[in-house]
Amino acid sequence: QVQLVESGGGLVQPGGSLRLSCEPSESIFSIYIMGWYRQAPGKQREWVVSMMNGGDTAYADSVKGRFTISRDNAKNTVYLQMDSLKVEDTAVYYCNAHSPWNDADYWGQGTQVTVSS
Questions:
Q1: SS in 3 state form for the chain?
Q2: Which of 40, 20, 25, 33 is nearest to 96 (CA)?
Q3: Angle formed at CA 49 by CA 18 and CA 31, multiple of 5 degrees
């Protein structure tokens, strides 16, 4: 079973930046779609961004142009760079690994991002 370990959340002022990290317990980037989701208080979990195993990316409209997903194969780590943060970005952010072969999903433990002045 793949385990995903996240880090990098915290408190930041509007307009600020944060970088989240997600390290899988195995080298899975070549076979899994990596992504980030978020869940704000009282709301359902929503998709934020995905990176296909070939490197193509897709972003939710709400974060396009502000968030960037990347990966470092040597460090076996996926990153989410979040710039120009807004109050409405406040949520628990979850790293996700999805297998397009058997529809398996693995989730990180979540990391809190709070955007507030």
A1: CCCEEEECCEEECCCCCEEEEEEECCCCCCCCEEEEEEECCCCCCEEEEEECCCCCEEECCCCCCCEEEEEECCCCEEEEEECCCCHHHCEEEEEEEECCCCCCEEEECCEEEEECC
A2: 33
A3: 115
Give yes or no for a contact between 4 and 55, defined as CB atoms under 8 angstroms apart. Answer: no
Which residues does 102 contact at the CB level (< 8 Å), separation at least 6?
none
Distance CA 110, CA 7 (A): 8
Strand order in the sheet with 67-72: 4-7, 18-24, 77-82, 67-72
pLDDT tens digit sequence for 72-116: 999 999 999 999 999 999 999 999 999 998 899 999 999 999 999
